[in-house]
Amino acid sequence: METSVKIVDKNEGELLGVAGGNYRIIISGDETDGNYAVIEMLVPPGGGPPTHAHPDTQEMFFLVEGVLEFKTEKGKTTVKEGGFINIPFGGAVHCFKNESDQIARMLCTVVPSGLEKVFQEIGSPVQHGKFLPVPELSEERKEFLRQIDEKYGQKTYPKNYLD
């Protein structure tokens, strides 16, 4: 692994359409010897991932702009600009959704890396400023996502699991 300082411009990094949002991999595990990855997430109104858990990954979010609703098994919380969320190791079930009419922007750090590889497999390349629709949840897509969960040691829950 290279030990020099890395500086990433705002237009650099792999940009993927994931869960209706745009996820930019700022630094991947391939660049950190697997220690961590950092992903910028732009979440449009109505956007957000399905309810899920990943016991072997700690996930930390810093909300740079906007408002998001985070749900866990302990309830739901509205997180505003400047808020921080820590999903510890152990598999806490969680999800988030943009219930506002503005795009939300978060920085997500995962320890160890690996979650960015999930995004690379389920996402599609996208241009800056464009948002792709969420892929139709066909039987083939459901099976593909189930295989991704199995491959990366995570679990996806039904839509209303935390309601």
Automatic annotation (TrEMBL):
Name of the protein this chain belongs to: Cupin domain-containing protein
Pfam families: Cupin_2 (PF07883)
Domain Cupin type-2: start-end pairs: 41-109
Signal peptide feature range: none
InterPro entries documented for this protein: Cupin_2 (IPR013096), QDO-like (IPR053146), RmlC-like_jellyroll (IPR014710), RmlC_Cupin_sf (IPR011051)
PANTHER family cross-referenced by the UniProt entry: PUTATIVE (AFU_ORTHOLOGUE AFUA_8G07350)-RELATED
Domain of life: Bacteria
